[in-house]
Amino acid sequence: MIAETNPEKMYQAMKAKLANVVPDFELKIKAELAAEINRLKAEKNAVILGHNYMEAALFNSVPDFVGDSLELARKAAQTDKDIIVFCGVRFMAETAKILNPGKTVLLPSEKAGCSLAASITAEDVRELKRRFPGVPVVTYVNTYADVKAESDICCTSGNAQAVVESLNTETVIFIPDEYLAKNVAKETGKHIIFPTMDPRKKFEGELDYQMIGWLGRCEVHDKFTVEDIENVRKQFPDVTILAHPECSPEVVAASDFSGSTGAMIRFVENSSAPHYLLLTECAMGDNIAAANPDKDMLRLCSVRCPHMNQITLEDTLESLRKNQYVIEIPEDILQRAARSVERMIAIG
Questions:
Q1: What is the C-alpha separation between 222 and 215, in angstroms, rounded?
Q2: Of 39, 101, 116, 294, whose CB neighbour count within 10 A is largest?
Q3: What is the CATH number of the domain that holds 42?
């Protein structure tokens, strides 16, 4: 990233990369903010992590590391800085704190939550374990720390299949994303049930199943439909469509490629298609376009995550100035959650 602290030089550097993505008047304002953030970052011995869903001006200026949740978890675990500023949503900052309990972890906006993480509680997980005793719990990293603490292992969208297969067990509980669970069940050949669809059923012994899911969804990826894909293909028959595995199985099946945000980036970098369209949080399309000016990224996506959108350069600057908002996790939850996160990282 650009570690420039001079506003004019920062503006020129950002303009060279983002002229076709961000309006010039906005770049001038953002460059001043970014330069000051870089100055404070050095002064306070801080590292800034930026998720792939960050707005283009932020993503392409102040983060020391950018990537998907797994890559940033690895970087958080390796940092020697005193302060970690996580430009992402709360569960991501919590994961950084879990891996760095002795460091200060800051989230630039206290409102940066997640609809998927909010769909399940620690008590929900305990109830699932009571209903299906002895079945290991695989928890998507897009969850809060207390849910991770009730789990055997975490996973990301990029390594979910590998995590499930690493357990070498016939049956797993996979929470909380309904669509990701269905997609992983298809990849692993497991029959999946959703007991919360009918909580009166006992299920044990009633059905042949190998995966137990939960009815959580990402409010962004839930918006993409097969009809969207069909309409795009009518206009651009030679488009290559990439879908995040948090999209429905029907959308994934109708797309040309499905993978984590990191996998999507690598796919675009290593392939040559006339057009690309990403079915995921739409700020990422701008970031890929900026990094790959020779690729034609269709700008037909207008779905932004309202939580990711809370993280701005303005709030990042205030977070560093005031040391806000500090992530705190109770010690007992932190230690138990660390085990499930570290097991995930070990699988890669």
A1: 12
A2: 116
A3: 3.40.50.10800
Write the DSSP assignment of 262-314 as a string of letters. HHHHHHHHT---SEEEEES-THHHHHHHHH-TTS-B--------TTGGG--HH
Residue range 281-297, pLDDT digits in tens: 989 989 999 999 999 99
Convert the pLDDT of each residue in 61-91 to its tens digit: 999 999 988 788 788 889 999 999 999 999 9
Q: In whole angstroms, give the CA distance from residue 292 to residue 4.
A: 22
- Measure Cα distances from 158 to 23, 98, 240, 296, 333 in Å: 33, 20, 20, 25, 25
Q: Retrieve residue 112's tokens.
A: 């940066």
Tell me how many domains the chain contains: 3
- Residues spanned by the domain of 151: 117-217
Q: Is 240 left (phi over 0), alpha (psi -120 to 50) or beta?
A: beta
The verdict on residue 330 lying in a domain is no
Which of residues 188, 217, 246 is at a domain's end? 217
Here the tokens at position 68 are 């998907």
Q: Are residues 92 and 164 in the same domain?
A: no
HSE toward the beta carbon, residue 348, CA cutoff 13 A:
0
